[in-house]
Amino acid sequence: MNRIQSVIRLMPLILALTSGGLTQAAAGEIYVITHADTKLTAESIRDIYIGEKQFADSVKLVPLDNAGGQADFLGKVLKLDATRYANLWVKKSFRDALNPPSVKNSDKEIIDLVRKTPGAISYVTTAPPAGVVVLQKY
Length: 138
Prior knowledge:
Low-confidence stretches: 18-26
Radius of gyration: 14 Å
Structural class: alpha/beta
Oligomer: single chain
């Protein structure tokens, strides 16, 4: 994938983050969840979401962003604002040819994907049901 294609692929994320297109959840709890078979530690969450960790043992990690809780997640967990997060991924795209986490629209969509996708990791704003592992609660 060339650099122009990478930037084009990042544009929806950049526009959503910088224009306020993603809704901000009321400040509350954030639950970081993983697929039941994915072996991760809470200390690895930041590295995964800034593109520094792509594998857990031999399993390819699949980080997902949750539009409803993203602002809280970025602030509480990554200590970044939306603009810095978008800029980080633009640089990662050019420098390391990495793609940012896919953005999903709801806790339900996130939970369904994490349950069925080995290597999946994400966060939700409501206590998750059985079938996923809560890695950390913030």
